[in-house]
Amino acid sequence: MSKKSKSSQSGEASSWWAQAEPEGVFSSLIGGYDVNDFFTKTWEREPLIFPGSKAQRQGSLTQLFSRECLDRILKKDRIDFGLHLNTCRLVDGQRENLNPNENPESGEPIRATSKRVWKLFDGERATLQFHQPQQFQESLWRLCSALESYFGCLVGSNIYMTPGGAQGLAPHHDDVEVFIIQLEGKKHWRLYSPVEVLARTCSDDLDASEIGEPTHDIVLEAGDVMYFPRGTVHQADTPADVPHSTHITISTFQNWTYGDLLRMALPDALESALRDSSAVAFRQGLPRSVMSSAGSAHAHNVDQRSDSSLEHVTGKLSSLVQLLTKYLQPSAAVDELNVDFLRSRLPPPPAGSPASQEQEQDAPAAKRKKTKAGKEDRDVVDLTNESGAGDPVGPKPSASSKVCLLHRNHVHVSIGADLNAGDDVDDPDFEFGSDDSDLDDAEIADINDEDDEGNDDSAVGLGAGLGFLVGGDGDDEEDGDDDDIDPAAACFIHYDFDNNRRFHMTSGAHNNIPLSSVKLPLTAAPAVGKLLAQLTPLALSDLGLGGEDALDLATKLWAVGLLSAH
Fold first, then answer.
1. Is residue 543's pLDDT more than 50?
2. Taking the CA of residue 427 as centre, how many other CA atoms within 13 Å lie in the half-sphere pointing to its CB?
3. Are 232 and 178 in contact (CB under 8 A)?
């Protein structure tokens, strides 16, 4: 490995958000504060300010975002009012939205050009709220991706830019855990006790009479970081003695609770109970009088007839809920949550040093796909495999290779049925055959072409020796028929390499694209587990498979960018 220049090393050292390990990124975010103390004493409990590491962070703050960054993006990319950028101001306690109206002829949003935006900012003293800038700025892509790997759930961001002496938003609370990073200027914050602890939804604008006195009144300067839990009421203004303030709001843990896990787990648990021949209580009939004496009219004392049926039904349901715990399978529900997360999260950022602002300035604008009518579709930006994470890395594995799993934070392994099965996608009928260690460059290109088309749920065989094919005997017809495979006898490696960062934290049909996955026989699961657990290269002979099967597995994972060989 070649040594990096001193300038390169110092540049990377200042980019705390570009560290290789997510744990290091989070530790730097909270200024070296004890992580265990943070999660046991502060997380989901109370706000906390981290002023101690300004010197560490300030060197790379302008690389994260700045007024110049926004101006560059406005000139380079298609940014629309309402979709990507909101403009507003607070006047006499009332919020005024300043977004231009939609185009009256086409009904499409108005493009937020540099000229329009700075006229609103400098002339109308509007606050700029730039939604999900990680879709456009590589440094924020790296930061949010690292934090997604750290928290194991989606992480979004918003940029807020406010002129001096102005305020954009009224007091309100959000439904996410929040980290504020002050990037430019200063911001005066007032925090209030929650109206609802760990709020499930965002609030409307709140009146002063609803929020009481501040629990925290503080000015954040460039380099300061502040955390507060979801439900914390807050408002912020820019002091008049600075030209403007820029801060980034990092948000996470939206709808990521025990209640959400139960929402996933309970339907399957109830179905298992109903199918259990010994669980007769779940299949007993309802009382004859349930329709006339146990409805909402009885619950609200509108119907004064006997409420014995209502009491009976309530008691019976309570007892069944207790019995239902026997059938809960949290591992299956966690698989569903994780696959949903991988389907929506940011793909891995590019390898190597983060791009400088000058490099991002010179980079070509994202290609846009064309609709059948030949018109540009602003909602479909072609950034598939933008980072190259899905391409083979290094030499093809050989029998003497040591191998290492790549991007393990962007991978989830599940055992059982295909978690992509509910998606409306065509089966690519893609198969390598049993001698995959001899894959040539053209065949590798074919594999990646399948990935680029979204047909990623590829049934990857390890050869008949691993029992992937039912009765596998080399017969071509049986080899290509996935319907003969017992779905319970499969191991799936799901990965997010083909996610498009321009769709990150947005809603729409693109979120239903099936997740990329490799399908393996259950007998390969222990070897996959070893690859997941081992952080340093592992000899193929240590995977616990036969020599040919180990090489076959390594070659398949290498071909889709999941593994490197040394």
1. yes
2. 12
3. yes
